[in-house]
Amino acid sequence: MWVLMIKCSAASWDIHSKAFKAIADKYPATPLSSKKMKGDGERIMEYQLEDVNEVEDFMEECLTLDGFTASFESL
Q1: What is the pLDDT of residues 35-64, one digit of tens each?
Q2: What span, in angstroms and rounded, lies between the C-alpha atoms of 48 and 13?
Q3: Which residues contact 50 (CB under 8 A, 6 or more apart)?
Q4: Pairing mode, if any, of strands 2-8 and 43-49?
Q5: 3-state class percentages of the chain: helix first, strand second, coil last, to nearest 5
Q6: Single pTM value for the model
Q7: 4 and 54 in contact (C-beta within 8 Å)?
Q8: For residue 38, which of 10, 12, 14, 24 sits 20 to 30 Å off, Cα-Cα?
Q9: For residue 61, which of 35, 9, 22 has the smallest C-alpha distance?
């Protein structure tokens, strides 16, 4: 199992949230958490996936969105 962590600024979320949600819907990921930070409004989202190839593909698609960063690790 793998956990994918995605971060973006409030401004990036405002611009790209629909595109991100479309990307997320393409993968068999289980949402673990979604946080909007106080102050700067940064978003931090975590998803659990079974297949490392799907994690890598999901991450690569997220990185195409301006202002999004992503990393993953094994559970």
Answers
A1: 999 999 999 999 999 999 999 999 999 999
A2: 21
A3: 1, 2, 28
A4: antiparallel
A5: 35, 35, 25
A6: 0.93
A7: no
A8: 24
A9: 22
